[in-house]
TrEMBL record:
<dbReference type="Pfam" id="PF00076">
    <property type="entry name" value="RRM_1"/>
</dbReference>
<protein>
    <recommendedName>
        <fullName>RRM domain-containing protein</fullName>
    </recommendedName>
</protein>
<dbReference type="GO" id="GO:0003723">
    <property type="term" value="F:RNA binding"/>
</dbReference>
<dbReference type="InterPro" id="IPR035979">
    <property type="entry name" value="RBD_domain_sf"/>
</dbReference>
<dbReference type="InterPro" id="IPR012677">
    <property type="entry name" value="Nucleotide-bd_a/b_plait_sf"/>
</dbReference>
<keyword id="KW-0694">RNA-binding</keyword>
<feature type="domain" description="RRM">
    <location>
        <begin position="17"/>
        <end position="95"/>
    </location>
</feature>
<dbReference type="InterPro" id="IPR000504">
    <property type="entry name" value="RRM_dom"/>
</dbReference>
Length: 100
């Protein structure tokens, strides 16, 4: 695990850098994430989280990129990006810290 500004990042051990994408529309699918992140570098995996009952996007997803610098550039460029009528929130996926 790598630490950046006091935030624990789940990183290269899982085969890439996992990026959290929030505020996707209910109609969003994996192809949207491929198109958004592909120009920044090698994308190894995309996943839109769906509601089991409706099969609609729950509003978030994950993208895995192999290169840290490319992932950081994608985050810097796409955080705050307007996709349709929504403003995306994009960041490295952080590990949850349980409070004692």
């Amino acid at each position: 695990m790598t630490s950046l500004a006091g935030v624990n990042l789940t990183g290269a051990s899982s085969g890439g850098w996992c990026i959290f994408v929030y505020n996707l529309s209910p109609e969003a699918d994996e192809s949207v994430l491929w198109q958004l992140f592909g120009p920044f570098g090698a994308v190894t995996n995309v996943k839109v989280i769906r509601d089991f009952a409706t099969n609609k996007c729950k509003g978030f997803g994950f993208v895995t990129m192999t290169n840290y610098e490319e992932a950081a550039m994608a985050i810097a460029s796409l955080n705050g990006y307007r996709l349709g009528d929504r403003i995306l929130q994009v960041s490295f996926k952080t590990s949850k810290q349980h409070k004692a």
